[in-house]
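so i finally got all the pieces together for this one. its two components total, 416 residues if u count the protein bits. some of the lines might not be protein, just check the labels. i wanna see the whole assembly predicted at once instead of chain by chain like last time, that was a mess tbh
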Amino acid sequence: MATALNVPPATTTTTLPQMKKEEEKVDYLNLPCPIPYEEIHREALMSLKPELFEGMRFDFTKGLNQKFSLSHSVFMGPMEIPSQSSETIKIPTAHYEFGANFIDPKLMLFGRILTDGRLNARVKGDLTENLSLKANAQLTNEPHMSHGMVSFDYKGKDYRTQFQLGNGALFGANYIQSVTPHLSFGGEVFWAGQHRKSGIGYAARYNTDKMVATGQVASTGLVALSYVQKVSEKVSLASDLMYNYMSKDVTASFGYDYILRQCRLRGKIDSNGCVAAFLEERLNMGLNFILSSELDHRKKDYKFGFGLTVGE
Amino acid sequence: MASQPRRGGVSLPERRAAKSDSNGSIISKLSGSPIVSRGRQAASDAVLVTRKLLKSTGKAAWIAGTTFLILVVPLIIEMDREQQMNELELQQASLLGTPPQPQK
């Protein structure tokens, strides 16, 4: 749901204010893990877009220190190649990924390198109490496919603002302000020099303890509305509507998210005829078993994956 | 019965012109009569319609069945396990003598 045309991560609006009982407006700190979409849709995305995969996945994370950890990950399975014809072409691939993480309250560093030559790096650090820096880079063997982005976030009392620079002359800025304890509005502008495109977008988010409703409009033609209702402690239901007024493309999806003690199950059904489910089950302390399935009835494309995650 | 290249939907085939057989026995005359040929047409149309209905019902049942299998069956299994674990905990709590915790 990024409104930037090239896929590089966040044109993030990073403010999600919430109400505390005494004060009027309180800033809400983001989760430490950066999400490459608009944070405003975070709840809906968590429920409706799990990381579905096809094949086998194995992740092992080993902490060497309190702050430093290494991770090894193996993936084997078919990868889809974007093709001109309507048929999807899948090629079996396998790769091994080695990563290192350094996590500190003030500084976080992530690095990943794959056997097919790709390198991902992410940095998140607090320069001062209110100003923080986020950077990420993806380097590949193929020419012109590497990109990087730097963003500076400033957190005010009840607002947040962010300025981004990316390669290919990508500039973006966004601002979000909380208007009432439950409601916040934001806007963003971006300019992509390489594609000579620019855009402006607006977003609004209304949240209470039990529900979150967000809406987003962008000049790239995207209108996205989402609604998440927390039905109980363990269950939440989400629905999402995406409409592109340039290409007249509509997609609606509904999903559920069950967080039980031993497992987390997410399921969703789509108006494109896609049904997906994602199950993470805790077999033991530190051992998680993952099952992912996706049926596309319209294209008759069925994908199933399983995996194991070891380590915290 | 020409099969028209149409996608989905139920369409009745074109009607053959009724052949009338004038020379021959009374049976062939009867079987050539318009009422009998109409009846035959109606029967074959009914067969065709039923076949198409069965096919689309089969398709719908397949989609509904696999969707149910993916969306609902893991949910039932997990909720069942959760319930079993809750009961076990309750049992253990009452065995150990602690008062049972209020269930969420």
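Helices of chain A lie at 42-48.
Chain A touches chain B at residues 233-234, 256, 258, 260-263, 265, 267, 269, 275-277, 279, 291, 293, 295, 297 (CB under 8 Å).
anyway lmk what u think
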